[in-house]
Specification:
single chain; 41 residues; mainly alpha; 1 helix; YfhE family protein; YfhE-like
Length: 41
């Protein structure tokens, strides 16, 4: 049971990192003048 708990925490952390990176990439794209297609959002 202890092993499953650690796996879940690691997954949550990577999910949080993914959201953070996605946000940072969007900000960088905006700063660089890169426009994304509306259906990609």
């Amino acid at each position: 049971m202890e092993k499953k708990k650690k796996e879940k925490q690691r997954h949550t952390l990577s999910s949080m990192q993914e959201v953070t990176y996605n946000h940072e990439f969007k900000m960088a794209d905006k700063a660089g003048g890169f426009r994304r297609d509306k259906r990609d959002q």
